[in-house]
């Protein structure tokens, strides 16, 4: 009886032994060790790296961040040139990247920073550059996309990017006011890990070329960060925290400041990170003026709204018929304590679910300035009767900003 059951039991044990082998799993990638790096083409490359089974070696060099996984790549430049390496992870863990020369056990760091997921080096022709891509968390990086950009191939006409093109090499601002003429065209954007527009994760607009600065103040004060000259679609963002945990302090967006400018209250003891972005990626020089400076003293003033709002209809000939257009006219009065060359006035009319708003710019000569904002083709169907108007006027450079007012009005037909 004993022998009758022994065969199947042994077979089951054998199957279990085949199914479970201690330590059995997929092999590490062939470029897991510095002794067998993946060779990169001299013309540059964009490739996907499998790090799911990558390991860390006891002699892996460090830049101040733990190394839980690492893979190695090799690049030999045919000419003296600037090299740029960028890495982007398929997971939420941001990988790290560093560049080395020399032999295992006697490596020399060419670009090594604990926070870096990108690197730039001035390569010497014929020198082998060893690139280590690592994960700062256990099993945190499964796949990563590596981009290798030799300057002589990808951007031969562009200037070499400055160090503060990278977030972690931000240029400290020693004192205020700070002003600089710089080349935004030499900078590059970091599409993988740059904060989105106003740190909004849903934002889709690209910030373009970016430069980073840091600021600390000795006393609480309002500070302006701005493009002093116009450039494409300029943007300025101010943050605290590190790259993986940025907190938005202020940013430039329509309705709160002029283009490419923002204002924030700086507190002593806090490190602020200021990002200047051009809004587009340029391949040639783009010289701009930037500034970080104390805000001017606030300029006083107020805004009033007429108690009447009028609507009227015109008829435009759109062949073969006249088409009615509804207009809404609102008039506001702005009082300013000193002359202003150009301020912005915004008026919004609300009547139940119907809303219409518009803005205009005009000069305020001191005292009373009258501003008429006409909104064409307003089809929300405003009727005779009560409504409300909210109004605000501001001018960034002069620190003029009236509190928003909201007043009841009466809509009527006819022209004011």
Descriptors:
416 residues, mainly beta, Jelly Rolls, Immunoglobulin-like, 3 domains, nine-stranded mixed beta sheet, five-stranded mixed beta sheet, 2 helices, elongated
Give a brief description.
The chain contains two helices and 27 strands. The protein is elongated and about 85 Å long.
CATH topology (fold) name of the largest domain: Jelly Rolls
Q: Tally the beta strands.
A: 27
Report Rg.
31 Å
* Percent in strands: over 45%
Signal peptide: 1-26
Keywords: Signal
Notes on the structure:
- Residues 1-26 form the signal peptide.
- The chain has 416 residues and is mainly beta.
- It has 3 domains: 38-154, Jelly Rolls, CATH 2.60.120; 163-294, Sandwich (Jelly Rolls); 301-413, Sandwich (Immunoglobulin-like).
- It is 5% helix and 48% strand.
- It is built from 2 helices and 27 strands.
- The strands form 5 sheets. Strands 19, 20, 21, 22, 23, 24, 25, 26 and 27 form a 9-stranded mixed beta sheet that branches. It has a 5-stranded mixed beta sheet with strand order 1-3-8-5-6, with no helix packed on it. The protein has a 5-stranded mixed beta sheet with strand order 10-12-17-14-15, with no helix packed on it.
- Strand 5 and strand 6 (106-111) form a beta hairpin.
- The protein is elongated.
- It starts with a helix and ends with a strand.
């Amino acid at each position: 009886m004993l022998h009758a059951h022994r065969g199947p039991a042994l077979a089951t044990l054998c199957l279990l032994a085949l199914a479970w082998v201690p330590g059995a799993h997929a092999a590490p990638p062939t470029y897991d060790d510095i002794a067998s790096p993946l060779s990169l083409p001299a013309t540059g490359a964009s490739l996907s790296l499998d790090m799911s089974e990558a390991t860390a070696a006891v002699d892996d060099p460090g830049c101040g961040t733990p190394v839980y996984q690492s893979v190695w790549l090799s690049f030999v430049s045919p000419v003296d040139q600037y090299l740029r390496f960028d890495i982007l992870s398929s997971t939420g863990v941001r990988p790290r990247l560093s560049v080395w020369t020399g032999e295992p056990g006697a490596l020399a760091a060419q670009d090594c920073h604990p926070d870096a997921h990108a690197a730039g080096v001035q390569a010497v022709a014929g020198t082998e550059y060893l690139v280590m891509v690592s994960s700062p968390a256990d099993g945190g990086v499964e796949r990563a996309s590596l981009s290798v950009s030799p300057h002589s191939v990808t951007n031969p006409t562009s200037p070499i990017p400055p160090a503060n093109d990278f977030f972690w090499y931000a240029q400290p601002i020693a004192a205020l006011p700070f002003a600089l003429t710089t080349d935004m065209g030499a900078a590059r954007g970091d599409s993988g890990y740059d904060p989105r527009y106003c740190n909004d994760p849903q934002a889709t607009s690209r910030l373009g070329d970016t430069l980073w600065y840091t600021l600390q103040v000795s006393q609480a004060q309002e500070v302006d960060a701005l493009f002093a000259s116009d450039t494409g679609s300029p943007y300025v963002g101010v943050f605290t925290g590190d790259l993986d945990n940025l907190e938005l302090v202020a940013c430039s967006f329509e309705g709160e400041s002029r283009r490419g400018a923002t204002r924030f209250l700086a507190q002593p003891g806090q490190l602020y990170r200021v990002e200047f972005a051009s809004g587009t990626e340029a391949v040639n020089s783009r010289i701009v003026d930037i500034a970080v400076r104390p805000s001017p003293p606030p300029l006083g003033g107020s805004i009033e709204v007429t108690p009447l709002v009028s609507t009227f209809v015109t008829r435009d000939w759109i062949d073969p018929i006249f088409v009615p257009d509804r207009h809404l006219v609102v008039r506001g009065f702005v009082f300013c304590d000193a002359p202003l060359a150009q301020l912005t006035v915004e008026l919004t009319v609300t009547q139940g679910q119907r809303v219409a708003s518009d803005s205009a710019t005009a000069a305020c000569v001191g005292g009373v300035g009258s501003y008429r904002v006409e909104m064409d083709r307003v089809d929300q169907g405003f009727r005779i009767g009560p409504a409300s108007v909210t109004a605000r006027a501001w001018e960034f450079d002069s620190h003029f900003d009236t509190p928003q007012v909201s007043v009841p009005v009466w809509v009527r037909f006819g022209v004011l």
